[in-house]
Amino acid sequence: MKIVIPGGTGQVGGVLDRALTAAGHEVVVLTRRPAGEREVGWDGETLGPWVEAVDGSDVVINLAGRSVNCRYTPANLQAMMDSRVRSARVVGEAIAGAARPPRVWLQMSTATIYAHRFDVPNDEATGVVGGAEAGVPGYWAYSVEIAKAWERAQERAETPSTRKVALRTAMVMSPDRGGVFDVLLRLARLGLGGPVAGGAQYVSWVHDGDFVRAVEFLVGRDDLDGAVNIAAPGPLPQRAFMRALRTAWGVPVGLPATKWMAELGALAMRSDTELLLKSRRVVPGRLLGAGFTFDHAEWPEAAADLVQRVRG
User: For residue 158, is pLDDT > 80?
Assistant: First the structure.
């Protein structure tokens, strides 16, 4: 297949690019700074010569959007919104104008769309889309609005010949440098991987191998469209998540951090505490219902596999 990945130069794009290329597919990456022979320039906002890559392709997997690993200032939040909505909109325009449109368009979304909750998991059928929950910072609601606008841009695209799937994706765990697993493992190795603000908040995650397999599964299943949760079926509280990671590396102790300590750490890392403190309890209802099986369903085993790969 010919697979086009707008915004495919980040961690998740790299995971997909490597796996799909190794499987024998022709992969083309759309990026603002093309460097390789399989990379094509685009600005993520306007139509241009890059649409030739989409016309005649089999699959488009749009990952474009400003990284969430930043301070959640008003300017950065607006940049997150604009980059996601505009890129999804222009990808839809390219598909709509193609003489030979792709048969499926997978659009990255996020598990952050669901409410901050501890009681029961969020699946696609019964999950609660977040908003202005009590007791959390007000700007968290804007993250949910970004996710909703992101999906809405895909929904509104006039692409009758192309099936559309929104990938409500949890944190993709891979051993790549600079990825979320790399950051969490570094904290654990430094003895800082203890519970944050009590550690009761749930962490939803997916092993990179299962993420790729889920994408391939969705490409091949013509009966699945709309929102699909891409998350392992075993979300767990942050304290247990980090304990399993410490065990996998062989670190006996992880110092706990209060909420204000997490704020200082996030400030130093130019990141935001929503990534640590929001309880994302998300499960893959539609994937499991369609018969998808996870190779890494539980975090302790997944963490051990990832650590082994880091150690080579």
Answer: yes
Give the CATH number, domain containing residue 84. 3.40.50.720
User: pLDDT tens, 24-36?
Assistant: 999 999 999 999 8
Cα gap 62→12, rounded to integer Å:
11
CA 55 to chain CA centroid, nearest Å: 26
- Check residue 35 and report its DSSP letter: -
pLDDT at 293: 98
Long-range contacts of 265-268 (CB under 8 A, 24+ apart): 266/71, 267/71
Q: Identify whether the C-beta of residue 235 lies closer than 8 Å to the C-beta of residue 202.
A: yes
pTM higher than 0.85:
yes
Report how far residue 198's alpha carbon sits from residue 259's, in angstroms, rounded to the nearest whole number. Answer: 9
Average pLDDT over residues 246-264: 86
Residues comprising the chain, all counted:
312
What does the block give as tokens for 107? 């659009």
Q: What is the largest CA-CA distance in the chain?
A: 59
Owning domain of residue 149: 2-311
Q: Reduced to 3 states, what is the DSSP secondary structure of residue 95?
A: helix
**Mean of pLDDT values over 234-248:** 96
Task: Please say whether the beta carbons of 172 and 12 come within 8 A.
Answer: yes
Number of structural domains in the chain = 1
